[in-house]
Amino acid sequence: MLCAPQGVGKTTLAHQVIRARIGLQDSVLGLPVARGKRVLLLSMDRPAQARRAANRIFGKDDRKLLDDRLVVWEGPPPYDMAKHTDILTAMCEAAEADTVVIDSLKDAAIGLSEDEVGAGYNRARQKAIAAGVQVLELHHLTKRGPNGAAPNDLAGVYGSVWLTSGTGSVILLWGEAGDPVVNFRHLKQPMNELGPFNVIHDHASGVSSVQNTADLIELARYGGPEGLSAARAAEAIFDTKTPTAAQKEKARRRLDKLVGSGQLVKHDGPTKTSPATYYLGLARAS
C-alpha cells in the first residue's frame, strides 16, 4: 500500500513500478524490481488526469509492447469489491495479469471506514494474492501527525484497520501538493525497513529518484578516532537533533548490519549501559 495526501506523487511512483513490472526499466528509486507478465491498472481516481500523467512516462515507449503488457481499466469497478470479493481476482484473470495497481482504494469499495467493508475488501485482496497476483494499492490519509507533521504510524491511514492489517508493506509519501521533493517512510515492513529518505519527482519526465541519504560508512570515516554512535547515526538518518529511542534502535540495527558485512567494526562501551561505538572496518580504512 502506498498512501499519501493528494498531489504528492502516488500515481507518478506507481507508473514507474508498472514500467518495471512490464520490463521497460530495471529499478524504481534505485531498487530492483522483478519483471512480471502483464499489469492491470485500475485507473479509477480521476482517470483523465492519470492518463495525462501516464503520457509523460509512457509517451516514448513502444505502443505494441504497452498494448501487450499493460491493460487499463478506467472508472469504477463493475461491482463493489468489498461486497463481491471475487471480482478483483476475476478482473486480473480476464486481463491475464500477474500484477494489479489499484488507483485508488477509495474507489474500489464504498465505506472503507467501516470494519465490515474493510474486512470484505481485505478478503478480495487476499484472494487475488492467493491466485498469484502482486497487489499495489494507492490510498489516502485520514489525518496529519502532531503539530501538522507527517503521520508516524498506521493510525494516520484512512479507513478500517483491516485495510492495513492485510498488507505486507505500507509506505507513506509526505509533502504538499505539487512538491518536487517529498518524504518516503516505510510505516509497515514485512522484513527490513526501507528509508526514510527524500524522493525527488521530475514532473516533466514523470521520473523519481532518491535524494542523497545518510551514508553511515562516510559518517564513521568522518568520526575518526571517536567513531560513530547509534544516536549520531539516528540524527543523520531521520534528520533530527532529538532522535527517539525507536529511531536510535533502528540506526543501531543498520550499523550492526554493516558490522556483519565487515564494513564496520563495533566496540562495546566500558559498561553494559554505555553505548557502543562503530569504526571503519579494516578494508574500508586502508
UniProtKB/TrEMBL annotation:
InterPro entries (UniProt xref): P-loop_NTPase (IPR027417)
SUPFAM superfamilies on file: P-loop containing nucleoside triphosphate hydrolases
Protein name: AAA family ATPase
